[in-house]
Amino acid sequence: MVKRSTYVNSWVTVLMLAIAVNIALAKGVNAQKSDTSYLRSFRARQTKALFKNSLHLAIPPVKPAVTSTTKLNIPRADDKLLSNVQIYPVPVSDVINIKYTLSRNAYVNIKVLDVLGNDVLTLLSQRMETGEQTLSYNVSNKLNRGFYFVRLVVGNETINKRIPVVF
Fold first, then answer.
1. How many domains are contained in the chain?
2. Whole-angstrom Cα distance, residue 19 to residue 11?
3. pLDDT digits 0-9 by tens, 3-21
4. How confident is the model at residue 107, as a pLDDT?
5. Domain span at residue 58?
6. CA 59, CA 55: separation in Å to the nearest integer?
């Protein structure tokens, strides 16, 4: 019995709250011209100060956004640091060329790994500038014939490319 009365009381409370909000917000509603009965009762209520202390909601005016014609090139943290990685010629015979683009200054580490993941050769390990970078390295006496991986590590990004080496 107590559960049922609590349930009914809660629904009655919600219903009364909904009616009160509708009445409070009805002041700003414009009635349609075809609904004359509502319009008559609404005009009659306007002269009385029934809702003097009621809740009035207003949306603040929206200011136009300020736009600038100057384009700023500021790198974001979620932009890719390393892009456009190209390794040529394929297959590599004497010289390996590596071309890549950095979106901002960063420490670059380029290594050659064998198929087991062991470091065979370090091609580059230094801080590089923003923009397109090209590295040429003579591998004729340093690598044997076979398959290798070139690992580029820039910041927290890593790219692995497979290269065949033939002589």
1. 2
2. 12
3. 666 777 888 888 888 887 7
4. 96
5. 1-67
6. 13
